[in-house]
């Protein structure tokens, strides 16, 4: 599917985080802790070793957006790329269908509510794109044989696979599965952990919105 055809068909809401437009909501409930993930920085607990070349990010400047939530078919939501290696779906498919990686495949498929046997067809229906805006997701590390969820802010320029509704479902460089962010995007605390570097607008160890 071409990127143009994909954007024409996308129809769901994707949660985005503009750097300057995050507003506070209800102050009674605790803020959602969100781990900032910068483009081009290795993931500490990936599903796929990032040296295997399943994908890579690109340094871009985040574009401003109006409002907190944009439709999946909004113009400019995603960026296309002519680089075939930005997300190598075939390599990811080979990795997850290798019997040696069956335990990882089970954990990966479980996050996305599919069976391991459905992985190849599922991946074939996804489209590789670059995030053009800092985007909130529920990310998943692989720890102790299981998929461990955590709220994540993905920097613009990170390569992801998106489904036909425009929802990011896989972080390309490490193969980590992604789900929609379930919290309030205007009521979060952004933290930098591990080796994740900071970027303009997020230049402190903790940022509260």
3D structure, described in words:
The protein is of the alpha+beta class. It has one domain (3-208). Helices cover 15% and strands 27% of the residues. The chain has helices at residues 3-9, 89-97, 102-111, 119-124, and strands at residues 13-15, 32-37, 69-71, 78-79, 127-131, 135-143, 146-154, 159-162, 168-171, 176-177, 179-180, 188-191, 206-208. A hairpin with a 2-residue loop joins strand 6 and strand 7. The longest helix has 10 residues, at 102-111. It is globular, with a radius of gyration of 16 Å. The termini are far apart.
User: Domains counted in the coordinates: how many?
Assistant: 1
Q: Quickly count the helices.
A: 4
**Taking Cα atoms only, what radius of gyration do you get, to the nearest Å?**
16 Å
Principal-axis shape equals: globular
Features:
alpha+beta; five-stranded antiparallel beta sheet; six-stranded mixed beta sheet; 15% helix; 209 residues; disordered N terminus; single chain
């Amino acid at each position: 599917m071409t990127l143009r055809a994909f954007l024409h068909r996308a129809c769901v809401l994707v949660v985005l985080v503009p750097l300057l437009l995050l507003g506070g909501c209800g102050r009674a409930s605790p803020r959602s802790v969100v781990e900032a993930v910068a483009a081009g920085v290795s993931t500490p607990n990936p599903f796929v070793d990032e040296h295997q070349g399943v994908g890579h990010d690109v340094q871009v400047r985040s574009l401003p957006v109006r409002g907190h939530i944009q439709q999946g078919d909004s113009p400019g939501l995603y960026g296309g790329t002519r680089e075939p290696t930005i997300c190598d779906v075939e390599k990811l498919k080979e990795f997850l269908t290798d019997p040696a990686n069956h335990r990882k495949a089970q954990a990966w498929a479980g996050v996305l509510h599919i069976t391991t046997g459905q992985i190849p067809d599922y991946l074939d229906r996804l489209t590789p794109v670059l995030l053009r805006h800092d985007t909130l997701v529920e990310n998943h590390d692989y720890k102790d044989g299981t998929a461990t969820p955590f709220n994540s802010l993905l920097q613009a320029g990170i390569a992801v696979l998106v489904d036909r509704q425009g929802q990011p479902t896989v972080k390309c460089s490490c193969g980590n599965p992604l789900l929609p962010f379930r919290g309030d995007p205007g009521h979060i605390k952004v933290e930098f952990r591990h080796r994740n570097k900071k970027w303009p607008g997020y230049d402190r160890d903790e940022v509260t919105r």
